[in-house]
Amino acid sequence: MSDLPEEVQSWIGQKRYEQDGEFDVERGYILTTCSSVRNGNPIFWDDKAAEEITGGPIAPPAMISVWFRPHHWAPNRTKQALPLQVHFDLKEVFDLPEAVMSDNTVTFGEPVRPGDRLRTWQVLRNVSTPKKTKLGSGRFWDIDVEYVNQRGEWVGTESYTGFGYRRERPESARSEPQASEVGRRDS
């Protein structure tokens, strides 16, 4: 018998938050990203080298999530877009105000190329039983973010392990007098 709420159980293994990229993969983003980290790999800068090595220009694989990072504002958006929404949903359902990502692995498929329009979704893989760590009490969860191009070809998966938790009050804080007790005299 699982101790997970039925709502959370129903999320496991299911595609959630499917979305199409708001814009095509664009060479300017690629060059700006490469420039910002001084990545001089010719497959990103030289069309001839890219053609010989990768069959044409590609985006650096590490940019896979760039195409879905929400802008803080967009016309007609009524709610702030959050990356990794399943993570925030779990924090809310379990009333866990803090969280960290303890692991991240990215697996790459077909190259992402300028002009591609990517599609993504999130899949909750599992949620642990309650755990206690040095950070506090909470749960671990595993989430995959899967990406395909406009042809439905798999281009990559980001796998995250998160830990949502509630900090424990230190013992010293528990023995501190309450504000209503400070200044009170026994009579």
Give a description of the structure:
It is a single chain. By secondary structure, the protein is an alpha+beta fold. The protein has a domain at 6-25 and 72-173: Thiol Ester Dehydrase, Chain A. The protein is 22% helix and 28% strand. Strands 1, 2, 3, 4, 5 and 6 form a six-stranded antiparallel sheet that branches. The protein starts with 5 loop residues before the first helix and ends in a 12-residue tail after the last helix.
Task: Describe the structure in brief.
This protein has 187 residues and is α+β, with helices and mostly antiparallel strands.
List the defining traits of the structure above:
single chain; 187 residues; alpha+beta; elongated; 6-stranded antiparallel beta sheet; Thiol Ester Dehydrase, Chain A
Number of strands: 6
Broad structural category: alpha+beta
What's the CATH first level of the domain at 6-25 and 72-173? Alpha Beta
Radius of gyration: 23 Å
**What is the second-level CATH architecture of the domain at 6-25 and 72-173?**
Roll
Helix content: 10-25%
CATH superfamily of the domain at 6-25 and 72-173: Hotdog Thioesterase
Proportion of residues in extended strands: 25-35%
N- to C-terminal distance = 55 Å
